[in-house]
Amino acid sequence: MKFNRKNLITMGKFKDLRVWHDAMELAEKIYRITQEPSFSKDFGLRDQIRRAVVSISSNIAEGDERGTNRESIHFFHIAKGSTAEVITQLNIANRIGYVETDTLQLLENHAEKIRASLKSLIQARGGNN
């Protein structure tokens, strides 16, 4: 997170946020695993997890571009919810054999890191968890 002279979080520089980069990386990973033959044929789950993972970085960007902390926090909460959605869908994919357990653990850890970063960002912007 970047701070200006008044010790406030700088807005409008979402590409500078580590959490945005982490979310972009998770999206790449999800797109790769959903291209695997068994997963790619399950159009419903494949499309849902892709929409959810894209929502994370998109809402971080939109939130950071908003004019007030209150508006930003709203979008960061949506991104945090989308992160939980991705974790749930990954667990479903694991249970039905689309994702190996070791891959699930790596992706879930990546998503949990994003969730924790969003929680910190929300608190830094003056919001509650």
**Which residue ranges are poorly predicted, with pLDDT under 50 across at least 5 consecutive positions?**
1-8
CATH superfamily membership: 23S rRNA-intervening sequence
Overall mean pLDDT stands at 91
Backbone structural class: mainly alpha
Which series of helices and strands comes N to C? Answer: HHHHH
**Gyration radius over CA:** 15 Å
Number of strands: 0
CATH class: Mainly Alpha
How many individual helices? 5
Strand percent estimate: under 5%
CATH architecture: Up-down Bundle
The biggest sheet amounts to:
none
CATH fold type: de novo design (two linked rop proteins)
Distance between the termini: 17 Å
Approximate shape: elongated
Can you give the helix content as a percent range? Answer: over 70%
Number of domains: 1
How would you sum up this structure, described in words?
- With 129 residues, the chain is mainly alpha-helical.
- The relative contact order is 0.17.
- The chain has 5 helices and no strands.
Task: For this entry, give a set of tags.
disordered N terminus; de novo design (two linked rop proteins); mainly alpha; 129 residues; elongated; 0% strand
Walk me through the topology.
Blueprint: H1 18-33, H2 37-40, H3 43-65, H4 69-95, H5 101-124
Helix pairs in contact: 1-3, 1-5, 3-4, 4-5
